Each structure stands twice: as C-alpha cells, then as structure tokens.
Amino acid sequence: FDHAITMVKFRGRSYWLEPTLAHQGGRFPHLAGVPYDYALPIAPGQKDLARIPAPTAPQPTERTTERYAVERDGALSLRVSTVYLDADADWMRDNIVSKSPAQIEKDYLKFYAGLYPGIETAAPIRFRDDRDTNRIVVEERYRLTADKLGAHGLNAKFPVKASSLDDYDDAPPEGRRTPYAFTVPLNKTHRIEVVTPDRRPGAPDAVTVDGVVFRYGFKAEQAGDTLTFDYHLEGKSDALWPKDIARFRADSAAVK
In angstroms, rounded to a whole number, what is the distance separating the alpha carbons of residues 165 and 186? Predict the structure, then answer.
C-alpha cells in the first residue's frame, strides 16, 4: 500500500474518491470511478480488503467527428469536434493544464501534417469545459489548398484514419509470460464524413470484431455527395493473457 484514498458512505452506498485528482470534474456523487480494485478501509473492526467496483462506461466517453469537405476553389476544409466525458474529460482537462492550449494545437497540427503535407490551421483550437457535468468539447479547424492537394497526390488518393482508436495498436511480443495491462473502461466512437461534390466513391464493407480484449465495429454509408464512416471501439478486459497474444494481434489488424 502506497496511497490513501477516501471512502464516503452516502444513502446506503459506498463511494471511493481520489483526492489527488487536481483537475477532476463532476459533482458528488457523479464522479468518475477509480480503477484500484481493492482497498483496506481504516475503520474499527475492519479486517479484510474491500472490493472497489470497477469503473464502467456504458456510453461512449470520447466521441470524435471529422468532416472533410472539398470547397468551390478546390481546397479542402477539415473540421474536427471531440467530446470528452467522465474520466476522459478528467484526462483531457489535465492535459490542457499541463501542456497548454498552444502546445496541444501544435501537436494536433503536426499529426494532420503527417497525413496531409501542407495543411494549415484555419482557426485557433477551442476548448469548452463544463466542469460541473464533466464534459469537454475540443474544436479544430484546418485547410489544405488545392495546389497542395495536387502537389502531394492527395486529390487522387486521400487517406483517412480514425486516429482516436489507437488504444490497441501495440501488442506484446510472442513469448511473453505475464499478462499485459490495458486501460478500462474504454468506450469510443469516431465518425469521418467526406464530402466530395464531383465524386461518388463506393462505401467499403462493414467490419465487426468481438475480440479477446475489445469489441470493434465499422460501417460506411454513401448518401449523395457524402461518404460517412462510423467506428466504435469498446474495451472488454483490462488484461491480455500470454496464450491470447496471437489472437489479439489478429483482432488489432482488423481495426482500420
């Protein structure tokens, strides 16, 4: 034991609180749970460890929407909106404070520039934080001119990637003898909308994975000049056992 937390009994239920979370949002009792599994309450007659209920995320706690649209002058505009809730909002709030909005804007631009050379920020990044409900919205705006689209061949082959779904990109090596830990709960959605007035690209086939550690779903729909990709990723387990590493690698390969 190397840490102290707080248990509060309220209306017949025990709540476990983490006092060191400086940037936690929400109001008691609606706070993100702690993933500590067990604790030893300091109380008269207490002899056994108490089980801490595992945090859950029945609804997505990170929802990202990217909208790519070809403008009349041939340039490409990109709007990104991400909604963070519960523990993900706590993480994002801490990230904003520790890094600064300017650094986050720089990091995000660097990511998109790796996919689309020449892309530029079209408006300053915006953060809207409703701390009482523990909800943060991050909005980004980018633009890629027509000449840069053509110079890098992006008008012929334009890559899109659900960048928020990278939690299971890394896998332990074959031969590992101990379990490999993952963060839970995890529940994310990611939507990509591509608006191409002069093209009608076909929608790819749907994909469903009920993996050993996570569930993943992908579907696409073509409606007029808009192609929409919808992704959903949900964690099932906080541990990957050595016997399941090969299966996990196959599951991860199916995530687009």
Answer: 10
